[in-house]
Amino acid sequence: MAAAARAFAAHVLRGRWFMAYGSFLIMSAAGATYIFAVYSKDIKATLGYTQEQLNTVGFFKDVGANVGKRFLFTRAEFGVSAAVVLAMLLVPFTVVLREEAALFKSTLEAQSVVTVATKPRTPAQEPAAVVERPAATLMSRVVRALRPPPLGDDYTILQALVSVDMLLLFTATVFGMGGTLTAIDNMGQIGESLGYPQRSIATFVSLISIWNYLGRVASGFASEALLARYRLPRPLVLAVVLLLTVPGHLLISFGVPGSLYVTSVIIGFCFGAAQPLILASVSELFGLRYYSTLYNLCGTASPVGSYVLNVRVAGRMYDREAARQGGGHAVASASGKRLVTCIGVRCYKESFLVITAVTVAAAAVTLVLAWRTRGFYAGDVYARFKEEEEVVVAGQSRNGVAASEMTS
Fold this sequence. Notes:
Helix content is 74%, strand content 0%. By secondary structure, the chain is an all-alpha fold. It has a domain at 40-59 and 148-380: Up-down Bundle (Growth Hormone, Chain: A). The chain is globular and about 80 Å long. Residues 16-68 form the Nodulin-like domain. It holds the Pfam family NFD4_C. It is a multi-pass membrane protein.
């Protein structure tokens, strides 16, 4: 009994459901970057930063920064809140235990069944004559090393870096996700320039975070269903998501009264929806052998786009308009010059028109990637994984047959 309990505990800790549960806990504490817009105004006013300098701080902000608001609880309120938090943590864990128990039971049943598979013998063939070839040149070795395998196979890091498909995906991520990050990081200054109160700005940040989660869940389920039923390429769904962000950027650019509530929903949903589509495309197109490295490679694309569009475009244009409104005086910096805040639609109009155009270009690049990969997605994307699973099952069956022969 104790041995079975230990085996089940080890199965749970190594199981995929427990990994999913752990990832939920990590993501639940990883929302610090989305509230940058709430306190960015205080950073700018206290340190005398220009908008370009503030956007540079936003570029370098880390996940899990020491931010937020401290709430004062009484002893009873703290106990109630602790009970609620524990309940929220333990309720999903019951799902983990239930699913892992079902998997553990099915594994035990599969091990108790011995399947003997007979394979017809093929006639022996004479070994082919060995033909001596001249030593390969350095250039031919380089060409062989860079030649990409078929889509879906395991790419090396070098093959992925020089792949046209990876270049298209990286470019679309830089300019598509960079625009949404710019909107998220500047939401505080956007709301201030358009005359929204601080409470509304906090609401915008909350809407972005909530719809970010909903976008991740919706795009994951929707793209998988479209792929299974219609063989729709996942990059095509990504292109649709990028195009959906265009109305949000245009609403910021033209400063439609009251539109930032809708904009926050659009930007948050599309930002969340694009993330799983990009990462799923990487794993499906380039394999899982070097997925962690390729994951980090695509992860750097969003900050690169944020730096270009947020710091170099939005920040500079904001400072230029603020200086014009301040009578041509230089915008304040940490050196002690007078601080000028930009007010009005013109603060972000030009920059978000640029971001809109760039996002449309990113969607066009993603459409090119969808066209290039349409043949791959028309087949069975998971065929290779099914073959590997059959090989593992066959190996387990052979081991079971050998064990039964030894006992007999």
